[in-house]
Automatic annotation (TrEMBL):
Similarity comment: family membership: Belongs to the peptidase M18 family.
Name this polypeptide is given: aspartyl aminopeptidase
Cited PANTHER family: ASPARTYL AMINOPEPTIDASE
One function term, GO molecular function aspect: zinc ion binding
Amino acid sequence: MSSSALKQAQGFLDFVNQSPTPYHVVHTVKSKLRDNGFTELSERDNWAGLIKKNSKYFVTRNASSIIAFAVGGNYVPGNGFSMVGGHTDSPVLRIKPISKQSKEGYHQIGVETYGGGIWHTWFDRDLSIAGRVFVNYPESGKCVAKLVKIDKPLLRIPTLAIHLTKDRYTKFEFNKESQFKPIAGIVKNDKNDTTETNESSGCCKGEDLSDEQFESVKSSVERHNKELIDLIAKELSIEPSQIEDFELVLYDTQPSCLGGLNDEFIFSPRLDNQVTCYCATDAIVKASTDDKLFKNSGIQLISLFDHEEIGSLSAQGADSSFLPNIIERLTKLTANPEVDLKSELPNSYLLTTMAKSFMISSDMAHGVNPNYSEIHEAYNKPHLNDGPVIKVNANQRYVTNSAGIVLLKKIGNLSRVPLQLFVVRNDSPCGSTIGPMISAKLGLRTLDLGNPQLSMHSIRETCGSADIEKLVSLFESYFEHFNSIEDSIFVDGVDN
């Protein structure tokens, strides 16, 4: 592996190790964008007069989704956008609203499954917690979201010893509600307790309570294990009583790392889809340096959404108004190219822009597993370190078509990035991506693509270390050259 490929792989390792939750992903992306001249905007503000040519911006929603864009120095109204879309979330275990439980002398934490994880891989792992905590500051009257990531093993979901199973050779099965609870410690002075507790709560009845005593929902200290709350408070340097609420998930404390005889693999959690988050961010930063952006006639954009793993139907998912809202703002605030981007245009410019734009829906692809090679279609078997995979499905689970392949082939030739093709067997199910919903919502030409990996949705996944550089290079070239290539590919109408 070349030194540049190794550097990109290490950059990704650092990225994923900092980002155990969508909130951390967005925070990490924001830090890199700020360091490279991107200005933060807010959806709560009017953007008239704020957007300028040859400038770079980003905006977040719910602190778990982010859109960043760079306006070319030669941009004029109606020109196309080159876009890359991905997602910030991964299958995970989330702490329940009332998580305080104990059984057989053990503290337990109630958790809820999120997404379609390979859940048996979560057993016997060194787990900790991360997420966001809403902290109350009584002196200012503000409640502020704080990120938390506790860097030590706290929890474990223990398997049942093979000696105690009825049939040692059956496949591993378990009940996700009753047999999938992490243990967090030993209950002091309670060795003989064989009962399971799960304290009821929700609303206080309010009877015979003063205004000071009444709480519409029990406090976090009452709903969760005291030692857990104390640990979170210590991490944030606050008092436990300041914790109003939180959204916390479990994560594997084993770091992402290089592996293989020649460092040809990355062994990591959350490859799906933090590979896209890292590569798209690095690519738009490189493609929007001052000299390159000044010459560009379009708008380069990355959109990283939360909630893809559960269908994307949320205020911050790919099936939300987030991307359409941002595109509408940008196409309306570009009326006069002589005086930067201030006044407003009619909606027809949005429609013109969408007809000239393109979205790469980037999510991980299924690399061929040598132990299950028969699962793959005989002539479509992507391999790790052989480049990004163009994903095709006749039933539109992926929205790639021949026009998109022609475009990506041209981009691949310019960047000297090899591309692979993938289609599922006719007797196999097929997953999907954010591509179909964005394509349908915006009438936007879209192609599905992603780096190949093994063990998708496991707590530890595998991809090729050299493929990180390839995807960055492909995206960078796409951002730089899209507008000069796009109008040479005729789909609707005839070349006159």
